[in-house]
């Protein structure tokens, strides 16, 4: 979308067909990035103050082409004040949900930031370093971003991320990159963005071995902290707290003003007393009877898939042939 010749909104979208052909083919229009874990935040790309006008223009454009889709999966809409309710009502969203995105505005120095932390966090940080010193363990912190090194750093991350998913007696973390498709996507993305210095693999090395790693994306003065992994042998040292502490210290020396802790609510984020953005998700269903019936069927299948997954049985419903195409979204 443009205003006075300036682009104020971009909507990267794709049309997914399930199955690929036939009278019961379901046509879902969604923002690019079909995996809700690998692509955590999807939605219109615009300034928060322009969201309402961008969504309205996109809605009008897509409504005029409603014969080409059955429903739209809207995601990543900032949930703030009365504008959110207006957006939600104008889109007639169904199956609405929210996800929380936590971030830390960083002051001018680590000392200022550290002194404002809750006492229990300061004590936790102190213990992390003390336990390593007690066992005469020294470490090296690295921020890997060069194209020459990023490939091997990503492979180390993938190995440690897999290890983390096997940790017991703690909050369970999925191995997000368990499939070859997810691995190859990350490898390709890291290789491309490393040329612009936009991706980092932060590491803690002990004895020359990487024992903890976290991916991050840096855009201007914002650092988005993505997934992580660690060697389970170093869990007793709270090595991930040490890594995050080192990342935050690095941020003050490298022009970072906001450290985004990513989506999802867990104590590893909330203990830092971050600020939070609520992101609104929902479905806009076409008014045709065909679309309504198909959407209800898909929603039912989605609920059963969730039940089966959390019942330790993974069944992938709806993957009966899948193709993607696009509706051209020229300037509106």
Automatic annotation (TrEMBL):
Name of the protein in question: GNAT family N-acetyltransferase
InterPro entries: Acyl_CoA_acyltransferase, BioF2-like_GNAT_dom
One Pfam family matching this protein: Acetyltransf_6
Chain ranges of the BioF2-like acetyltransferase domain: 120-266
